[in-house]
Amino acid sequence: MDQELLNLLACPVCRGSLQITKDQKSCFCDGARRHSFDFSRSGYLNLTAGQKLEGDGKASVRARRAFLEAGYYQPLSNRINELLAELDAKKILDAGCGEGYYTNRAASKERCVLGIDLSKDGVDFAAKSAKVQGNCVGFSVASIFSLPVRDASFDTVLNLFAPCAEEEFLRALNQNGHLILVGAGERHLLGLKERLYETPYLNPGRADLPKKMPLLHKETLHYEITVSGNAQIQALFSMTPYYFRTSDSDKAKLDGLETLTTEVEFDIFIFRKG
Ligand SMILES: [Zn+2]
Fold first, then answer.
1. Residue 161 pLDDT > 80
2. What average pLDDT does the segment 155-163 reach?
3. Residues with Cβ within 5 Å of ion ligand 1?
4. What's the domain count of the chain?
């Protein structure tokens, strides 16, 4: 992680600023206690400061990664990148970045993105991909409800399918900064639900929209995908919030299914600070 990205981060204990050591293996804060943090082998920083790690485990991270890398959600990633370009976003926080698919695709040499997630396995995957690409991107393991970032240091926060931590986003954003928030649209994965349930229901939409930030823009991205191979279909299913609420007998309906065509739909919101 280069110093430019490190300047956006803060010590999770005392909020001091972070400095890289000469050997580049760790960093330390400028507070009186000089808290220090090691970079992982893949290059991310663990800034949880003793918090309990949660988030998705290795198997679900790997399944999601394989699904995303097959490109089924690439139109969403492309649309997010178009919006970032329109907003002239330069310093972006991806809050709840998971395994970094959207984060790494949003970053470039000029556009710096910092991905934060509580899943160590997710962030590890993300940091490994980032190394190959050489863009201005870095990752940290931390809770988005207690962001180890400096106040007013980002012009944009991305919040894709992760909980909305509005107070922390407001603190992280500079004046007139933007929050791009994405959730499942009401017809998202209807084709998958038709396979699983007698009476498939529409998604209710995100209930945790920010309350203090004015909405600038809302759009819906809708298209159809055909998922090939049972492993990919199962991966897609395991990414849904209703996976854990589905009975074993309903889950079994996907066994042996090799092709699935379904609508996908995303609601994209842009909010502004101030
Ligand atoms: Zn400190």
1. yes
2. 97
3. 11, 13-14, 16, 29, 31, 35
4. 1
80 is written with which tokens? 């997010």
**What is the CB neighbour count within 10 angstroms for residue 198?**
6
> Ligand 1 centroid vs 137 CA: distance in angstroms?
23
Among 85, 67, 30, 82, residue whose Cα is nearest residue 236? 67
Phi, psi of 139 (to 5 degrees): -135, 145
User: DSSP 3-state assignment of 112?
Assistant: strand
Q: Which domain holds residue 141?
A: 3-272
Q: Which residues contact 154 (CB under 8 A, 6 or more apart)?
A: 8, 91, 92, 93, 114, 172, 173, 174, 177
Can you give the CATH number for the domain in which 37 is found? Answer: 3.40.50.150
Render pLDDT for 247-262 as a digit per residue (tens, 0 to 9): 999 999 999 999 999 9
pLDDT digits (tens, 9 = 90+) for 192-215: 999 999 999 999 888 899 999 999
Measured in Å, residue 8 CA sits from the centre of ligand 1 at 14
Structure confidence by residue, pLDDT tens digits, 163-183: 999 999 999 999 999 999 999
